[in-house]
Amino acid sequence: MFTFKTECTSKFGQVVGLKVWEAVNKCFDALPLAAVIDNKIFCVHGGIPSPENGGGYLNVFEDIPHDLPDPEKTSPLAWEVMWSDPLREDELDAQTRETVVDSGGFVNNHRRGTAYLFSREALEAFLERNKLSHVIRAHEVKQAGFQVQQNGKLLTVFSSSGYCGGTNQAACILADRNKIRTIRIDTS
After folding, report:
1. Angle 3-119-96 from CA coordinates, rounded to 5°
2. 147 Cβ partners below 8 Å, 6+ apart?
3. pLDDT reading at 73 higher than 90
4. Are 45 and 138 contacting, i.e. CB atoms less than 8 angstroms apart?
5. Contact 165, 184 (CB under 8 A)
6. What is the DSSP pairing of strand 34-37 with strand 179-185?
7. Over the stretch 139-159, which tens digit does the pLDDT of each residue have?
8. What pLDDT score was predicted for residue 118?
9. Backbone phi, psi, residue 47, to 5°
10. Is the pTM of this model over 0.85?
């Protein structure tokens, strides 16, 4: 199984790799888990919070501790927004569709074995509840470097090309003056 820790130790050796991994995690501890741009665009690594964590409102992020050595245990909300993913239409068989409806748009994330998959309806409810227009996230490799999903309200962007030896492109997002621009980065 790929982990960032494994990537560091394989590239830099056991001793230096572990130091690199620890230093990067210290930097991550200093960064915010999420941000809102222009009071309209929610930016996060993984996904949106479920209503069971503070009702799905943004103000609950203020309660997340800054030092998260074990986020799964320390802050279920932090863990959720780091590891949740959008539910794809091709994953909606009859049973999953029923579970999604009964659960307010969230189902267990079978792809990762942790956190949730969130539906288009869950995303739209989150955006409306918080008076937002879009969510920009990362967390999943996209062949073109980005993907627009869930009625154009969700953008997944991946800024690392050739990830794990793959052939994916890189992209970034420019959000300025109430416009969102996706920029593909030529890394050839």
Report:
1. 90
2. 155, 156
3. no
4. yes
5. no
6. unpaired
7. 888 888 899 999 999 999 998
8. 93
9. -160, -165
10. yes
The Cβ of residue 143 has, within 10 Å, a number of other Cβ atoms equal to: 11
Query: Is residue 1 very low, low, confident or very high in pLDDT (cuts 50, 70, 90)?
Result: low
Model confidence pLDDT, tens digit, residues 75-100: 989 999 999 999 987 777 777 777 77
Q: Is 151 exposed, middle or buried (0-12, 13-18, 19+ CB in 10 A)?
A: exposed
Q: Tell me whether strands 41-44 and 134-137 are parallel, antiparallel or unpaired.
A: parallel
CA neighbor of 51 nearest in space, from 98, 87, 102: 102
DSSP string, the chain: ---HHHHHHHHH-HHHHHHHHHHHHHHHHHS-SEEEETTTEEEESS-PPPTTTGGG-GGGGGGS-S--SSHHHH-HHHHHHHH-EEPPGGG--HHHHHHHHHTTSEEE-TTTTSSEEE-HHHHHHHHHHTT--EEEE--S--TTSEEEETTTTEEEE---TTGGG----EEEEEEETTEEEEEEE---
Burial class (CB in 10 A: 0-12, 13-18, 19+), 12: middle
